[in-house]
Amino acid sequence: MSSTLRHIGIIMDGNGRWATKRKLPRTAGHRQGITTAKKIIKEAIKLEIPWLTLYVFSTENWKRTQKEVGFLMKLIISHMKNEASFYHENKIRVRHTGDMKGLPEDVQYEIKKSIRNTKDYSAITVNLAINYGGRNEIIRAFRKWTEDEFKSSKFLNEETFQSYLDNTDLPDPDLIIRSAGDQRSSNFLLWESAYSEYYFSDKLWPDFTEKDLHSAVENFESRNRKFGGLN
Q1: Cβ-based neighbour number of residue 136 at 10 Å
Q2: pTM for this entry
C-alpha cells in the first residue's frame, strides 16, 4: 500500500495518561511513546510518505513540573544519542522545527548533530517539533522579516511570509493525526495547517499502532479536498 500523502503531522498525545492508567510514573509513558513513534516512522516509510512532523515538546510544555520537563530534556538527548543507528539504518533525515535558541545547549547540540549526520538520507524526513508553538513560529517569522535589511524590496504577502518560517521547503501537512481523544490543534502548525485534514483517534499514543496509521491514511484518501472551491 502506498499513499498520495506528502506530509503527515502527528500530535502524540496521551503518554502521561497511558502511564497513570497502569499506575506507572509519567516518565514510563514518555519512554513508551518513543517506541511507538519509531514503529510509526517505519510504517510511514513503507507507505512512501516523504514528510512526517512529530509534536515532541511544545512551548506550553514548559508549564509542567520541573521534574517532568527535566526528564523530557534528558530523554531527547538520550534518544538522539542512542537511536542514531535507527535513523542511519532506515535512511531517515532528521529536521527540527521550533525555537532552537530556547532549548538547553546540550539539547541543541544533539539535535543539530542528528540533523547534520542524516542530511543526505531520503527514505523519509522526520521533522521534530521541539520547543514548538504555532503562534511562536509566526511571531519569530515576522521578527525575521522585520530584521531583514532587504525587506523593503519584499512586499509582505503569504508567499513572502512563508519564506521566513522554520522549514520553508516542507509542504503543508495534508493530514494531521491526534491521539488520545482530544479534538483541538493545540498550537500545532497553525500557519501550515490552513487546509489540513484532521483525524482523531481515541487511542493513547503508546497504544497507537501501524494499523491505526493505515486507518487514518485510508480515511484521508476517502475525503474530497476542496481547498475553498466547489468541486
Answers
A1: 19
A2: 0.94
- CB count in 10 Å sphere of residue 224: 5
61 catalytic per annotation: yes
Asked if pLDDT for residue 2 goes beyond 60, the answer is no
User: Is residue 13 annotated as part of the catalytic site, yes or no?
Assistant: yes
Asked whether residue 150 carries a pLDDT value surpassing 90, the answer given is: no
- H runs (alpha helix) in the chain: 15-21, 26-46, 66-82, 84-89, 105-117, 134-147, 158-162, 210-221
d(C-alpha 99, C-alpha 167), whole Å: 12
pLDDT value at residue 231: 59
From the list 15, 61, 131, 174, the catalytic residue is 61
Choice among 13, 166, 174, 212 that is catalytic: 13
Residues making up the chain, counted from first to last: 231
Mean pLDDT of 20-46: 97
Grid cell of 86 as nine digits: 535507527
pLDDT value, residue 94: 98
What is the pLDDT at residue 149? 77
Select from 3.30.1460.30, 3.30.9.10, 2.40.10.10, 3.40.1180.10 the CATH code of 7-221: 3.40.1180.10
pLDDT (0 to 100) of residue 224: 80
